[in-house]
Specification:
Blueprint lengths: L6 E3 L13 H8 L2 E5 L5 E5 L2 H9 L35 H12 L4 H25 L3 E2 H6 L1 H11 L6 H12 L6 H24 L5 H7 L10 H32 L1 H9 L4 H11 L7 E4 L4 E3 L2 E3 L4 E4 L1 H4 L34 H18 L4 E2 L21 E3 L1
Helix pairs in contact: 4-6, 4-14, 6-10, 7-8, 7-10, 8-10, 9-10, 10-11, 10-14, 12-14
Length: 403
């Protein structure tokens, strides 16, 4: 059977922690708009070429209306981050979405990120102190990768530090497509919703120097601001998006650099390469998770193929980032690669709002690790690193290191 007639199970199984599945190259070459079967059993089309993924993400005809009656369900019970009611409260397109992005985006300017750097570096230093105190080997993901983005986003939202562990659990239930039952997901979402609702009320009564206070101060919809419900959902969304993705990326980036120790040594010699190294790590991430689903309410064409109305497509940015037609020596990690127009943060009107925050966190973590633990190395062979299963966002289960 040719690859064009085959229906692949999606996500494509892959045992290697850091390398892409062999199918990606084959699909890009022979079947750039492939038929796949999702965990729910529903069918969708998988897009793997750079130009096609970029075109779909920029095309307003490909919507985020994943609750449409004929849209593919991503997981068996139809739950998860892409299908939750909460995802419907923020306008997902048009002027409403752009307005929301403008209001929230003020918090993610380069100037504001630069101002956050010293506090981020201090958090990283403190976490590394604790890790060193406990001794090697250590799990870098649990010790540094996971807590750092949670602490940073909690600070930005004005959330008390002692509540951070609850956030980790709530976020995990949102992003997990297989690990939790529908009852567990519903219960966690209800708790999370109630917590944020109380937190927004507290911020209204006593504003602070945080994002939610600022959004409330902008007034309601009649004043050009957001409704209370939209402020609440924005807080939930940023917390989920801002912590799990970056937490996992810290682990994967460090793993890639330590997997070939010469990369780490090069950064020790040339710390000026930290910025381009972060971008290349994002491009090379072969384990970025589910990809971005889009729903097509009208007939449209992609990659030379006409897709009927009602098609659900999955854009694999990670596969697109390995496309030789877009990146020279795409399969090689080049710490000096520039420009690097990877699609790790998506593209177009829905590109990741928090990408400047993620980039800043990744750069700061790398700066602090290189300074504090120059002798850092993997404590297990690369072949023993394990992927996290079931998450909408890909990551490593643990990252054992010593120094």
């Amino acid at each position: 059977m040719s690859v064009n007639e085959q229906v692949l199970n999606y996500p494509i199984p892959n045992d290697a922690a850091l390398d892409p599945p062999a199918e990606w190259a084959r699909l890009r070459g022979e079947c750039p708009v492939a038929h796949v079967k999702l965990p729910s059993g529903d069918g969708a089309r998988l897009i793997t070429r750079y130009e096609d993924v970029k075109a779909v993400l920029a095309d307003p005809r490909f919507t985020r209306r994943l609750t449409a009656p004929d849209a593919a369900r991503l997981s068996a019970d139809g739950g998860g981050v892409f299908n939750s009611d909460v995802a419907q409260i923020i306008p997902d397109g048009g002027e409403g979405h752009q307005h929301w992005r403008r209001l929230v985006g003020r918090w993610f300017t380069a100037k504001r990120m630069a101002a956050l750097r010293p506090a981020m570096a201090q958090i990283a230093d403190d976490l590394i102190d604790d890790m060193v105190k406990r001794g090697a080997p250590a799990d870098l993901k649990a010790s540094l990768g996971f807590p750092l983005p949670v602490y940073v986003i909690c600070d930005m939202l004005g959330v008390p530090a002692e509540d951070r562990d609850r956030f980790s659990y709530w976020s995990d239930t949102f992003l997990n497509l297989t690990r939790y039952t529908k009852e567990e997901i519903d219960a966690a979402q209800a708790e999370f919703f109630q917590y944020m609702s109380d937190h927004v009320e507290a911020r209204r009564a006593q504003p602070g120097e945080d994002l939610l206070s600022e959004l409330l101060a902008a007034g309601g919809p009649e004043q050009g601001g957001l409704s209370d419900l939209q402020v609440l959902v924005t807080g939930m969304g940023l917390l989920v998006a801002g912590h799990e993705t970056t937490a996992n990326m810290i682990g994967k980036m460090v793993a890639m650099l330590l997997a070939e120790r010469s990369r780490w040594e090069r950064l020790l010699d040339e710390p000026a390469l930290i910025r381009t190294t972060v971008e290349e790590s994002l491009r090379m991430d072969a384990n970025s998770g589910f990809g971005l689903p889009r729903y097509l309410p009208v007939e449209s064409e992609v990659g030379g193929e006409v897709l009927p109305k009602g098609t659900t497509v999955i854009c694999s940015m990670a596969a697109a980032n390995r496309d030789e037609s877009a990146f020279e020596h795409a399969g090689e990690m080049d710490l000096t690669r520039s420009p690097n127009p990877h699609l790790a943060f998506g593209s177009g009107a829905h590109s990741c709002l928090g990408q400047s925050l993620a980039r800043t966190e990744l750069q700061v973590v790398l700066e602090v690790l290189l300074r504090r633990l120059p002798s850092l190395e993997l404590a297990v062979p690369v072949t023993e690193l394990e992927r996290v299963e079931g998450l909408a966002v890909g990551g490593l289960r643990t990252l054992p290191v010593r120094w």
